Amino acid sequence: MTTFREKIREQVTNNALQAALDANAERRIQGRIKAFTTLPDPQERRQRAHAVRADVIEHLDEYLEKFIAKVTENGITVHRAKDAAEANGIFLQIVGAIRKSPLLIAKSKSMVTEEIGLNHALEEAGHRVVETDLGEYIIQLRGEKPAHIITPSVHLRRHEVGELFAEKLGIPYTEDIPTLTDTARKELREVFLNADVGVSGVNFGVVETGTLTLVTNEGNGRMVTTLPPVHIAVMGMERLLRNLDDLALMLSLLPRSATTQKISVYTQLIHSPEKDQQKHLILVDNGRSRLQKSHLQEILYCIRCGSCLNACPVFREIGGHGYLGTDGSIAPYPGPIGSVVSPGLLGENYVQLAQASSLCGACKDACPVDIDLPKLLTRVRAGESGDQGNALPSPVKLGLKTYTRLATHPGLFALSQRLAGLGARLVAPVSAWMKFPAFTGWGYSKDFPRPVVTPFRDRFNREETKNAKVFSLKEEKKGKETKSPEASKVNLVGRFTEELLALGGQVVICKEADLSGKIIALLREKNIDRVQTWDQIPGLDEAKLTKAPPNSGGEAGILVQHEADESIKAGITGALAGIAETGTIVIPGGEGQPLTASLLPEIHIAVLRASDILPSMETAMRALKIAKAPAVALVSGPSRTADIEMTLTIGVHGPGEIHVFVVT
Question: What is the chain's mean pLDDT, rounded?
Fold first, then answer.
């Protein structure tokens, strides 16, 4: 059995892994920083988000009761599971009622299902489970666990994926990422269309409306929740928000932190089952109640963005598969967050993970809900991870207690620093400092820092005095800038157009009288003679689409149908609203408004009235009656992925093109 330390040594000497992890970290970190500069108040939002999550966790039982009542009222069957075994048992009972075996189960990415081992339980029962997120699909074919919360195949290079697809899918070897992505699209399209059951996680549950929120980019999340006759959502019981205002706040933070986007391509708001569909929600405890009552309660604020993994210098070296339990198993949650969550939920087996941290604080700085991860990591190290027992040997615990005594008394701390610095010069005047592997293991990979005579505080105070005038001038300039008059009112149509174009979408601004003709011209340009549409789309004259154009020389009109058909290449929908700040269109689903029209075809055409464009997500959530529709899809550009070497590829499971006709 490979031990934790042996695995670390193996990972840090793997050159291919190091290159993959470095590329991920650099792009994610820089992308996140850039994405947050587009917010006017990022720090204030982090604090608000922290307060929202703190309130929910503090009053979790009360909010759960209200949420369950609302979800049940909406027509979704709710099940509660105290642990992994009960959650898997409930799932098997639901699918057992279908009276067909084996079942084809299409699964969207979900960390809580990794936590409870759902795939293994279903496969043992004889069912076929297919992961449909590209990264998850790749690692499933390899028989591996996810290496990252957001990017499961972050550890792989393109040649490894090419070799895998050649071996498992029988295609000619290629390293071309669009070709590899298209191969996965074709393979998984049959799974979506034929699946008996769809499985998803839940990013957020909204108590006020009973909304299940899913945030994805590829379109597979929409597929598994929309197409199969049975949809089962699995949700950690802590993933609640109080209302839609809270949801708007989190949607401004989660994508920026997770994938460096202002907003993900697809945000689904599910309220009730589709026509002729069953929907179930399994709420999983599995240790969360115990965590809520422990010193690690704050870890339940986590929204699973994975940002702390990208920022962590240790994760960047060892990757997700480097986080092993004492039994040699890979922790379901790696990185800084996993080093607290995994032992907190799953026990003493993963307590040692907290040692894989430099406590540099980068994880706290990156966290969109401002979780104090270094504090929680030290608590796990000190044996405060619930009822798992003490993880540290007595000498180390004594050392930590001594350090705590010194560090909490400034005078003693300053004196100890000076004495240590003087002692260091006497005991070890040479540059090499002592190592203590026998006591702490620290010296296996790091040198204990040599104390200095002049403490950091003294040096900092000198620099602070020197630069006080500079800081003062900067603050004065900042104050003057704050007082400057605001810019003129934003042109919402212009802003919406700019944002959607940046995401790879297309915008056509036209008068209502010209709408049908311009859509026909686009369809002719794309050689499309058949479309799926809603029953009615305001402003669109369906008769004009179906009528042959004058002097057409026998050319037929566009064939219009309202039912889903895999062979149809274009779908036309209306839009409830547009959101200017993110280039998002709001697509409701329900009777006469099939969500498949914006999902299955390769090209999505949407009709949006200019008067329905709203400035922000917050405004949209307040203004729109989204809870009236069975489901709502917020669509921001064509579907995309970056699961292979962080290379952006357009057109995965959802449409590869989106054209929005803005009607003035």
Answer: 89
Q: Which of 217, 241, 308, 317 is nearest to 63 (CA)?
A: 241
Count CB neighbours of 145 within 10 A: 16
Across 337-357, average pLDDT: 95
Question: What whole-number distance in Å separates Cα of residue 643 and Cα of residue 656?
Answer: 16
Task: Mark which of 284, 311, 336 sits at the end of a domain.
Answer: 284
pTM: 0.87
Which residues make Cβ contacts (< 8 Å) with residue 490, sequence separation at least 6? 580, 615
Measured CA to CA, the distance from residue 649 to residue 177 in angstroms comes to 8
Q: Identify whether 65 is part of a domain.
A: yes
- Cα–Cα distance measured from residue 411 to residue 413, given in angstroms and rounded to the nearest whole number: 5
Contact 571, 642 (CB under 8 A): no
Residues 6 or more apart in contact with residue 405 via CB below 8 angstroms: 412
Task: Assess whether 387 and 403 both reside in one domain.
Answer: no
Question: Is omega for the bond preceding 102 within 30 degrees of 0, making it cis?
Answer: yes
Task: Residue 613: give its domain's CATH number.
Answer: 3.40.50.10420
* 88 and 233 housed in the same domain: yes
Q: What pLDDT was estimated at residue 207?
A: 98
Average pLDDT over residues 232-243: 98
Residue 239's φ and ψ, nearest 5 degrees, are -85, 50
Q: Are 8 and 318 in contact (CB under 8 A)?
A: yes
Domain annotation covers residue 219 = yes
For the stretch 367-384, pLDDT in tens is: 999 999 999 999 999 887
At what angle are helices 42-58 and 244-258 packed, to 10 degrees? 120
582 by DSSP, 3-state: which? coil
Q: pLDDT class for 67, splitting at 50, 70, 90?
A: very high
| Token reading at 577 | 């609203």
Distance CA 225, CA 274 (A): 9
pLDDT digits 0-9 by tens, 14-42: 999 999 999 999 899 999 999 999 999 99
**C-alpha to C-alpha distance for 135 and 165, rounded to whole angstroms:** 13
